[in-house]
Amino acid sequence: MMEEAPIPFAAIACNLDFDILAAAFPLLEAGQVEALEWSFDTLFRAGQVPDWFSELLSAYSQQGRLIGHGVFFSLLSGKWTPQQQQWLQHLQQLSAQFRFDHITEHFGFFTGENFHYGAPLPIPYTQASLRIGQDRLSRIYEACQCPVGLENLAFAYTPDEVKRHGEFLNKLLEPVNGFVILDLHNLYCQLHNFAVSYEELIELYPLERVREIHISGGSWEESEQAPQGKVRRDTHDEAVPEAVFELLARTLPRCPNLKYVVLEQLGNGLKTESSRTQFRHDFLRMEALVQKHRASLLGHPEHLFRPPQPLQLGEVIEDQSLHEQQRQLSRILETAASVEEAQRRLHASVLVGTDWQMEQWEPHMLETAIHLAQKWKQ
Questions:
Q1: Phi/psi at 277 (nearest 5 deg)?
Q2: Is the pLDDT of residue 115 over 50?
Q3: pTM
Q4: Tens-place pLDDT, residues 127-173
Q5: Percent of the chain residues past pLDDT 90, beyond the cut
Q6: DSSP label at 144?
Q7: What is the H or E stretch that residue 55 is in?
Q8: Cis, peptide link before residue 8, omega less than 30° from 0
Q9: Which of 13, 110, 255, 348 is geometrically suited to a Cys-Cys bond with 118, CB 3.0 to 4.6 A?
Q10: What is the per-residue pLDDT across 272-323, written as a single tens digit (0 to 9) for each?
Q11: What's the number of CA atoms in the CB half-sphere (13 Å) around residue 378?
Q12: 3-class secondary structure for 247-291?
C-alpha cells in the first residue's frame, strides 16, 4: 500500500520491458515511486499481459495514481484510419479495467504507413490542423472519460514554429479543457537547436495547463548543417543531463496545477547495471527537487481538467489535402539520400507554397527529420 503523499507526485514511466523494470524494481520495492505512467498502447506488440504486471498497474490504479501515455495514435494525421478507431476501442476497454487519472498523447503526425512505426513530426499550425486535433482529442476523452493532455514536441523545422508551439497546444486543448505534459528534455532540444533562451520560450507556453512534467535524457548528433555542429535529439536512451535538472528546478514554481513529475528512459538505454544505477540516482534527484517544491506550496484546489459541458461528436474530421501533403512528405523523408535531394524533391511536391512553409526549413532540422523518418521506417 502506498503512503499518502502531497502533490506533485514523483513518478516513473514503467512499461512491460525487462530492462526498465530491472532498473525501477528497487524503487518500486521501497515504495518510493508515488505514481506510475504506462504507455498502454505498446500492448499491441506485447499480446498477453502477465498477471504480475496487471497487479502492479492495479495497485497504482486503485490509489488513483496510474496515468496513461499514448505513443502511436498519430493525433494530427489528415486521414482517419481503422487503426485509430482500434486504438480508441482499446483505450475504452483498458479504461474499464484500470482507473486512469489522465491520458496523454504526443503532438504531431507519424511518418510511415504501418501503425506503430514512424517518427512524430510537426504539422502546419492551420485551422484545418486545429479542427482535426480538437476532433481527435474529443474522441480520446469520450473513450477514457478522464482528463486528456498533449506533450510538447522536441522537433521543429523553424524558430517561428518553436515559438508558436505553446499557443497552438493551448488552442488544441481548449474544447476538452485539456492539459499539457511539459517535457523538459524536449524543451532543452528546442533551446539548443534554435539558440533560443529559456526565459523567452517558457513564457510562450500555457503554464497554467501543465499537469505533468517529463524529464529524460537524449543524445547528440553531429551535423555539418547545424550552426553549432550538432543537433540535440530526444532519444530517451541516456541519463538526464544536468541542464534538464536545472530546467526542472526553474520550471516547478511556474506550474500552479502540476500533479506529476515523471522520469522517462527507454529500456535500450538500461542494459547495464551502471545505467540502471544511474536511472535510480536520477529518480532520487528528481524526487528531492519535487519534495523541495512541495515544501514551498501553500496548497490549492486541484484543477480537474475536464470539459465544462458534454462533448458533441459529429462525423470524423478529415482533410484530404493535408493527408496528401503528409503522405508525400513522409515518402521524401523516408527515401532521400541527402538534404539536397530532399530539398529538390520538396520543391517539386505539393508542399510548395503551402502553410508548411518548407522553403524556410532549417537544413539541419530537415536533416534530422530524414534521420528520424528513416530510423523508424518499416
A1: -65, -40
A2: no
A3: 0.95
A4: 999 999 999 999 999 999 999 999 999 999 999 999 999 999 999 99
A5: 84
A6: H
A7: helix 51-62
A8: yes
A9: 110
A10: 999 999 999 999 999 999 999 999 997 778 899 999 899 999 999 999 999 9
A11: 11
A12: HHHHHHHHCCCCCEEEECCCHHHCCCHHHHHHHHHHHHHHHHHHH
Q: What is the pLDDT of residues 176-234, one digit of tens each?
A: 999 999 999 999 999 999 999 999 999 999 999 999 999 999 999 999 888 889 999 99
Buried b (16+ CB within 10 A) or exposed e, 227-249: eeebbbbbbbbbbbbeebbebbe
Helix (H, G, I), strand (E, B) or coil at 44: helix
DSSP E strand boundaries for the chain: 9-13, 35-38, 66-69, 100-106, 109-110, 120-121, 148-151, 179-183, 210-215, 219-222, 230-233, 260-263
| φ/ψ of residue 90, rounded to 5 | -65, -45
Amino acid at 35: A
Q: Which pLDDT band, with edges at 50, 70 and 90, does 116 fall under?
A: very low
Per the CB < 8 A criterion, the answer to whether 156 and 194 are in contact is yes
Three-state DSSP at 110 gives strand
Question: Which residues have CB under 8 Å from 298's CB, separation 6+?
Answer: none
Give the separation between CA 146 and CA 104, rounded to whole angstroms.
Answer: 10
Q: 200-218: buried (b, 16+ CB within 10 Å) or exposed (e) per residue?
A: ebbebbbbebbbbbbbbbb
Residues in the chain: 378
Determine contact, residues 352/360, Cβ cutoff 8 Å: no
Provide the b/e sequence for 284-299 (b: ≥16 CB within 10 Å).
eebbebbeebbeeeee
Contact 98, 351 (CB under 8 A): no
Residue written as grid cell 483505450? 91
Q: How far apart are the first and last CA of the chain?
A: 43
Q: DSSP states of 305-338 as a string?
A: ---SS-----SPP--HHHHHHHHHHHHHHHH-SS
* Closest listed residue to residue 184, CA positions, set 112, 136, 232: 232
